[in-house]
Every structure is written in C-alpha cells, then in structure tokens.
C-alpha cells in the first residue's frame, strides 16, 4: 500500500528525516514510536502530503504521490490536535465535512458510542478538550478508508472513551485495513500493535514486534525496552 524510499527532510539546518526506507504492505496496526523530535509526525505528514520532502519518493498503491492529492480520499487522518472553527456548532461541522468529502457512514453510531448527543447543538469553542477529541475520532472513523493515520489519538480521552476507541481500531483492523498510529502510551502499544517502527534522529532504529524489541534490548517490558534504546543512543 505505502512504499517510502530514500525520504529526507530538513527544516533549516535540522535534519528531521534521513534516508528513510519503509513500506506498509499488509493490513494491521503499525505503531510508530520515538522520542519527541524523532520525525514521527513529519513522516506521517509526508505521507499525507502536508510536508514535502527534500528528496525521496512515496508511493501509494504503486503510484507516486508527492505533489498530488487525489489519493487522500483513501485516507482517514486524525491529527493530534484538531483545530475546529470555534463558532460552528458540532452538528454543523459534521454536515460540512460530509458535504466536502463523499462516502461518509451514518455518524449516529459513533456519536452514540461517545455519548456526544448533548453536545451536537453546542459551539465547538465551548467544548472541553476531551469532548473535542471525541469529535475528532468521529470525523476520522465515519469514512470507510483503507488507510487510517492516527497521530496520538488517545490525547485527552477519558478511560471509557479510550476503551471505545480501541474497539473501533480493532474493528477497522478486522476489516483488513492498514492503520498507522503514533502514541506515547506504552500499554496501548503492547495491547494493539502488530508491529512497531522505532525512529531515532530521523532514522529507523528498529522494526518488528513488541516482543522482538523486548528481546533485542533484553527488557522485561516495553517501557524498559524504550528506556534502554534511549540510553544506548544517549538521547
């Protein structure tokens, strides 16, 4: 589905991605890990066309995507922080997004699942961060896209909403979809990941399963495995 070759990106003098070669050809949950500044979000935004790399190629289903946009109709993207028009009401935002992009599911089941009915007639600027994040989830999952990109999707969610989000992710995985996730919640990584990609200084340090990373670092759990990687690299 996604093939990345020789991806390189600098912001000023700072190299954020350096010769990244990566492919996601199978369905499943692929979690991208790494410390702050390791290049995770830049990698995702490069796939989305929101960042233009200095060199390298990105192919989606065999077609080069850099400089194009049509392929984005096959992607559902959940940003870490969604910036909604503050004066719009929730139901107005949902209608606007459905009008802009075809192929939306009936969002009522997602609204019910996150208990958002009392907020539909409220302005987005008056909502809490957690409620805004639930709306962010609804906007992401109400489209039947073969590729989902979720950047820190659990941010601000309460425990009940988090459980529901995990259920939605598993449902999409069971449909054969490809899901890319970044998160700092190691318990979530261990619970849902089919594989992890660990970035350090814009390079791929490790790719494999959680158990393989634990074995690679001789660690008893994922948190210690990550800590050992960072110690070894002096991050």
SSE layout:
Elements lengths: L1 E10 L2 E11 L3 E6 L6 H9 L6 E6 L2 E2 L10 E4 L11 H11 L7 H6 L15 H13 L5 E5 L7 H16 L3 E5 L3 H7 L2 E6 L2 E6 L1 H7 L5 H12 L2
Parallel strand pairs: 3-8, 3-9, 6-7, 7-8
Antiparallel strand pairs: 1-2, 1-4, 4-5, 9-10
User: Can you tell me the overall shape?
Assistant: globular
Largest sheet: 6 strands, mixed
Percent helix range:
25-40%
CATH superfamily heading: P-loop containing nucleotide triphosphate hydrolases
Write the CATH fold name. Rossmann fold
Global Rg:
18 Å
CATH structural architecture: 3-Layer(aba) Sandwich
Q: Bin the strand percentage.
A: 25-35%
Overall mean pLDDT stands at 92
Would you list the SSEs in sequence order as H and E?
EEEHEEEHHHEHEHEEHH
In DSSP terms, counting alpha (H) and pi (I) runs of 4 or more, how many helices? Answer: 8
What is the topology, as strand order, of the major beta sheet?
6-7-8-3-9-10
Number of DSSP strand runs: 10
What is the highest CATH level, the class? Alpha Beta
Distance between the termini: 32 Å
Derived structural class: alpha/beta
| Total separate domains | 1
The residue ranges in which pLDDT falls below 50 over 5 or more consecutive positions are none
């Amino acid at each position: 589905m996604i093939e990345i070759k020789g991806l390189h990106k600098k912001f000023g003098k700072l190299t954020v991605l350096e010769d990244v070669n990566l492919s996601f050809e199978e369905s499943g949950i692929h979690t991208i890990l790494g410390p702050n500044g390791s290049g995770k979000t830049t990698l995702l935004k490069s796939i989305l066309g929101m960042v233009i790399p200095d060199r390298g190629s990105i192919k989606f289903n065999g077609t080069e995507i850099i400089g194009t946009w049509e392929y984005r109709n096959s992607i559902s993207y959940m940003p870490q922080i969604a910036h909604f028009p503050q004066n719009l009401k929730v139901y107005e935002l949902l209608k606007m997004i459905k009008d802009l992009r075809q192929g939306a599911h009936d969002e009522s089941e997602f609204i019910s699942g996150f208990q958002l009915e009392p907020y539909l007639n409220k302005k987005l600027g008056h909502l809490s961060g957690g409620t805004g994040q639930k709306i962010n989830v609804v906007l992401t999952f109400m489209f039947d896209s073969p590729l989902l990109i979720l950047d820190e999707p659990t941010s601000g969610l309460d425990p009940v909403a988090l459980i529901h989000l995990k259920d939605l992710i598993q449902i999409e995985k069971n449909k054969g979809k490809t899901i890319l996730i970044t998160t700092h919640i190691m318990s979530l990584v261990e619970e849902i990941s089919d594989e992890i990609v660990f970035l350090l200084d814009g390079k791929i340090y490790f790719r494999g399963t959680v158990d393989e990373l634990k074995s690679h670092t001789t660690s008893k759990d994922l948190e210690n495995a990550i800590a050992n990687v960072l110690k070894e690299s002096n991050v």
